[in-house]
From TrEMBL:
<keyword id="KW-0560">Oxidoreductase</keyword>
<dbReference type="Pfam" id="PF01488">
    <property type="entry name" value="Shikimate_DH"/>
</dbReference>
<keyword id="KW-0521">NADP</keyword>
<feature type="domain" description="Glutamyl-tRNA reductase N-terminal">
    <location>
        <begin position="120"/>
        <end position="270"/>
    </location>
</feature>
<dbReference type="InterPro" id="IPR036453">
    <property type="entry name" value="GluRdtase_dimer_dom_sf"/>
</dbReference>
<dbReference type="InterPro" id="IPR018214">
    <property type="entry name" value="GluRdtase_CS"/>
</dbReference>
<feature type="domain" description="Quinate/shikimate 5-dehydrogenase/glutamyl-tRNA reductase">
    <location>
        <begin position="286"/>
        <end position="421"/>
    </location>
</feature>
<dbReference type="InterPro" id="IPR015896">
    <property type="entry name" value="4pyrrol_synth_GluRdtase_dimer"/>
</dbReference>
<dbReference type="InterPro" id="IPR015895">
    <property type="entry name" value="4pyrrol_synth_GluRdtase_N"/>
</dbReference>
<feature type="domain" description="Tetrapyrrole biosynthesis glutamyl-tRNA reductase dimerisation">
    <location>
        <begin position="435"/>
        <end position="539"/>
    </location>
</feature>
<dbReference type="Pfam" id="PF00745">
    <property type="entry name" value="GlutR_dimer"/>
</dbReference>
<dbReference type="GO" id="GO:0008883">
    <property type="term" value="F:glutamyl-tRNA reductase activity"/>
</dbReference>
<dbReference type="InterPro" id="IPR006151">
    <property type="entry name" value="Shikm_DH/Glu-tRNA_Rdtase"/>
</dbReference>
<comment type="similarity">
    <text>Belongs to the glutamyl-tRNA reductase family.</text>
</comment>
<dbReference type="InterPro" id="IPR036343">
    <property type="entry name" value="GluRdtase_N_sf"/>
</dbReference>
<dbReference type="GO" id="GO:0015995">
    <property type="term" value="P:chlorophyll biosynthetic process"/>
</dbReference>
<dbReference type="Pfam" id="PF05201">
    <property type="entry name" value="GlutR_N"/>
</dbReference>
Amino acid sequence: MAVSSGLATTLAAAKMEAFSLNSSLPQASSSGSMSLRAYLAPSQLRPFPNPARNNFRRRAMLKGGLRCEVAASSSSGDAVVETAEINIDLDRVSSLSALEQLKISASDRYTKERASIVAIGLSIHTAPVEMREKLAIPEAEWPRAIAELCNLNHIEEAAVLSTCNRMEIYVVALSQHRGVKEVTEWMSKTSGIPVAEICEHRFLLYNNDATRHLFEVSSGLDSLVLGEGQILAQVKQVVKVGQGVVGFGRNISGLFKHAISVGKRVRTETSIAAGAVSVSSAAVELALMKLPESAHATARMLVVGAGKMGKLVIKHLVAKGCTKMVVVNRSEERVAAIREEHKDDVEIIYRPLTDMFSCAAEADVIFTSTASDVPLFLKEDVKDLEGSRFFVDISVPRNVGSCVNDLENVRVFNVDDLKEVVAANKEDRLRKAMEAQEIITEETKQFEAWRDSLETVPTIKKLRAYAERIRLAELEKCLAKMGDDIPKKTRRAVDDLSRGILNKLLHGPMQHLRCDGSDSRTLSETLENMHALNRMFSLETEVAILEQKIRAKTSQK
Ligand SMILES: NC(=O)c1ccc[n+]([C@@H]2O[C@H](COP(=O)([O-])OP(=O)(O)OC[C@H]3O[C@@H](n4cnc5c(N)ncnc54)[C@H](OP(=O)(O)O)[C@@H]3O)[C@@H](O)[C@H]2O)c1
């Protein structure tokens, strides 16, 4: 047990660390407004700016007039010239009101962020059931929720994972802080829970941490019963329902599809889901273990007691393929209700308590789970029964007297035997959860690499468009010089020539932007190439695209 609690503490500590790290990020205040700190760009909070910012871009910014990153420094000679220009700009800045400056710095800030994957959630670990049930969104409403979320100014893609244990929203946010604020306000509006209360119980995870969390969820590592399978089915359902929904976009659907394969991989490679972890399932598992495999389908099963535990035993027996059983109970009502629930799967024969010994005589396995405070089976009740059998007694106080175990042809397992099995299985699952973390680390890297590879697409498009603009301009100049009366054939030849030169020149850079695994180039090399090309040709891909997207969204309204 010491091992298990140690492992549990490690897992819990890792999770808490993620939460506390994120809680140090600027967040919406309880009133829903952002703190001043949240509005300021990191460069503005730092006493010294990032020296890596390149001169080329700085000059372009300075030419363009006021930008808040005026403090960009450099050790190179031309920084002196720029400092003079910067001072002029600073004079202009100081003439603006503080509010104006804040607004400008804020808009500048968010266009510099890369779109992020953010998980905003409340789960069984962070929020009480009263909150979770108000936040829950039924499956039929998921497409509407995705559409509403994507209609928010800073949200581009979305998915909703709403189960009885968690309400988690995954988004691609064009700005982390504004995105979180908008989603939290949306959650407040749909649930009627004040923003402050949601903030108190929610967790926020960004990019790698969000990816990792979803992979843990789909693997059952965030579930109360480690490795349980229901959550994987629920993650699959998110993908099924999301198909064709516009806001369930490439990044988020990619994330959820990857989470499904991680969930499957973890279960297959670690067999974390093996081994019963509840008393009732352990009772059934133990019974089947004691029977020869060939007898599983034909063994005569008797369940004594049809309360909560009896019902669970019946459920696990049905899940293991049992098609017929006898249930003894004081009253018939509960048995009738269980029979109704499983009417398509199993034949349940009810017998009153007075028939208990005759039923036991005809059973191979007897499960006892009543609230009787005196034993129902004693040595003298069992000793004359023909054949061998075993009892699985999950009652406390016990329904089967310990003296019964003295009989040659009878074995009795009680709740302590089962608890030992359960504890061993739980410990085993914790060990497997540690193995699963290694798989999840590997898969998180793979997913991030895939996401990064999507980044080169805008650069490819922009570089081609940039080159095409130059080609067309130069072609036009050339044709103008050649006069109006040049034959079509010559025009086409010149056009082809310009295209040929362009394609040949672009071939190399395009090859170096490709990361489809067709050559040995690593992803980091490709990304370095991408950043170099962005710098060289001033493509400013991310900024421009984010800016365009935000503008397009706000202007639609
Ligand atoms: N609940 C748990 O998590 C849990 C876990 C491990 C072990 N257990 C043990 O499992 C046993 C059953 O628990 P439960 O949660 O299923 O209780 P429950 O839902 O209250 O059901 C009690 C069952 O016992 C029957 N019963 C009550 N008094 C009886 C008596 N004097 N003689 C014969 N049958 C009697 C009831 O029959 P009627 O339907 O006719 O009332 C009913 O089938 C208890 O000993 C409990 O300690 C429970």
